[in-house]
Amino acid sequence: MASKGLRVLSTGLQPKCSLSYRGLFQQLAKGGTVTIVSKRSCSYFTYVPEEPPETAGEVRQMNLCQAVNNAMEIALQTDPTAVIFGEDVAFGGVFGATRDLATKFGKDRVFNTPICEHGIAGAGIGVAIAGSTAVIEMQFADYIMPAFDQIINEASRMRYRSGNTFTSAGLTIRAPSGGINHGAIYHSSSPETFFTHMPGIKMVIPRGPIQAKGLLLSCIRENDPCIFFEPKILYRSAVDMVPTEDYMIPLGKAEKIQDGSDLTMVAWGTQIHVLRDVAKLAAEKYGITCDIIDLRTLNPWDMDTVANSVVKTGRLLIAHEAPYTSGFGAEIAASIQQECFGHLKAPIERVTGFDTPGIPHKFEVFYKPDRWRCIEAVRRLIMPKAIERLETSVGYI
Amino acid sequence: MTMLNLLDQILTDCSRDGRISFYLTVEGEEGAVVGSAAGIEPDDLTFGQYRESCGILLYRGCPVNSLVHQCYGTASDTHSKGRQMPVHYSSTEFSSVSISSTLATQVPQAVGAALSYKRARNGRVSVAYFGEGAASMGDVHAAFNMASVLGCPTIFFCKNNGWAISTRTSDQNNGDGIVSRAPGYGMTAIRVDGNDALAVYNATKAAREICIKESRPVLVEALSYRCSEHSTTRYNSRYRSEDEVEFWKQNDPILRFKNYMQIRGSWDDKMEEEWMEERTSIIASALKEADALALPSPENLFTDIYDKMTPRTEKEMAAMKEHLRKYADKYPLEKYERWD
């Protein structure tokens, strides 16, 4: 095959050729073959599929995007008041999350809006005020900012300010978030803490397809407004056998996906998969085992699950893509040091994106809290006496 | 309108006395508010800015003492449980959405509600109120465009009252008021004398017909004048003359309506005297009731953040309760309902 044909390596959606397209056509014209080899795994992490629960009936292979689509389909089937709108959702959305929904449910239920995030958010709140369900899409989490006023000053405050007479309970805001290797400054944001800082709205981030479907259905049915950020790098690369039935995963509850005894790791979304790799590395290098906790809901977050683990292990590593200062790791670290101070064997470590205004295009490989930066944090956690405080003059990354 | 005006005057005095912390009136614009309230149905959902809500609620039969309780923030404040500044009313019973201080945020929300009503085919419209100042906000552009494109039965009611705090309309926009924007959005609009309550009533009624029959929005611009200060803070003399205000007081909507009623033989001085006496007594009794009431229990600081209280808030609430027990004499707890 190799001598006769041309192997074209495909990472993601676009095939990349070491030859030019001209070379490709020449090869084909000669009667040769072209084999496209898909390489779905990302060097940043390896996605390990989640096993469906034993009680699950029929399952179907779905990636995270398809799982989100399935959740919305079920929401539209079960709630006649539910509508989905946003920019470009009618044809399926720029990532395909709303594919086929307009065809199945009609243009009065799944429709495009003008380009106007604050209008979309405001209208979504209005739909909720009128007692219906609105699942609105922000095309990228980076573009949620024009809607900030509506989300903070209106959706989050509606129930409290009105003495529980009006609410935005029926509103769910979805957006793709996080780095994707080439998204750069305006297509890579993880702006969760702008919203976790606001009581009155919930913030949920899934780590995979099974989680995404159950959590999104919970968000849509929750009696509070919710924001659901979907790690876009997982849209295609995370694939599970997802139960086809209608199921929900409760909000406000973290999940321990791995048991250990020496160190606690906390993350959400894509970073969970990085930490799985780090835990393996830590076992090989240092012979330690780790609890890995997926927060799932950041607001309100499940402090008890994290605290119980830290009481056991005495060591905490938090990792997230969002910048260091005022990242959600800061909230976790401050709370856990207060709750578990006497149990801590080392200062809490946060491995995060740097304090830069966005992920810079060509430097993303250095920016992200990858397994090498995380394993260094593990080293500091387990060998505190060996830490030379002056080891690096610029501090820890 | 007279009730509204009287209530406004009395509550303004209360704010100057310090009995309530803040107030703002709709003096000079009662015709636009009450005329429009009369032109819509009682269950059409209104999204006020802040100046119109009182008039709409009074027209729809909301008891005065309910409004006074909100201004005082008493334990009987059903609009906001003591959490909002005065005049930030909220009533599901009278279909008037919770007021927020942020300008124009309610306008796209009215569009969403109308969308929902259109789907439900329930014969209701939504009405978004805003001033010509708020019309400069992006949310109004967003709402106009979306309502028009999506075909939403929304009445956009703009009260152009000449002033946004100290900024006159010529510093606010450079076009022909707000009505001129409508064709740009493919939207029907009408400009009406906002101080002629009956004209406003007719215009609003006609707008509603179009919304319901044709499932599309209509913009009504009511020209009026803000005789009052923006709110209880007195800036008037710094940015406009007394003469200007006096001039517009001659165009008072209540006076014009009264004259019309008198000419038609439906009103006279004797009726007015009895009417005003009765209104004053209703308001006085509402104030007396509010004066005597305690503020809501401090527990209300922590409730209604979410549907169900989170573990974090439970902790905060428990800690604060304990703190208040220990430092009871440092806080004005006697003003509040007991927190057991």
Strand order within the widest beta sheet of chain B: 1-2-3-7-6
Any low-confidence stretches of chain B, pLDDT <50, length ≥5?
none
Structural class of chain B: alpha/beta
First and last CA, distance of chain B? 43 Å
Tell me how many strands of chain B there are: 7
Give me the strand/helix succession of chain B: HHEHHHEHEEEEHEHHHH
- What share of residues of chain B is helical? 40-55%
Largest beta-sheet characterization of chain A: 7 strands, mixed
Task: Describe the protein.
The complex is a heterodimer of chains A (397) and B (340). Chain A has 14 helices and 17 strands. Chain A has helices spanning 21-29, 64-78, 101-105, 117-129, 148-155, 158-161, 192-196, 209-221, 234-237, 271-286, 303-313, 328-340, 364-367, 371-382; strands at 6-11, 14-16, 34-38, 59-63, 83-86, 110-112, 134-137, 171-177, 202-204, 226-231, 239-243, 255-258, 263-267, 290-294, 297-299, 316-323, 349-353. In chain A, the strands form four sheets. Chain A has a seven-stranded mixed β-sheet, sandwiched between helices. With 340 residues, chain B is α/β, with parallel strands linked by helices. Helix content of chain B is 43%, strand content 9%. Chain B has a five-stranded parallel β-sheet with strand order 1-2-3-7-6, sandwiched between helices. Chain B has a two-stranded antiparallel sheet with strand order 4-5. The longest helix of chain B has 24 residues, at 269-292. The interface between A and B is large, with 51 and 50 residues.
Short structural description:
The complex is a heterodimer of chains A (397) and B (340). Chain A is built from 14 helices and 17 strands.
What structural keywords apply?
heterodimer, A: 397 residues, alpha/beta, seven-stranded mixed sheet, 33% helix, disordered N terminus, B: 340 residues, five-stranded parallel sheet, 9% strand
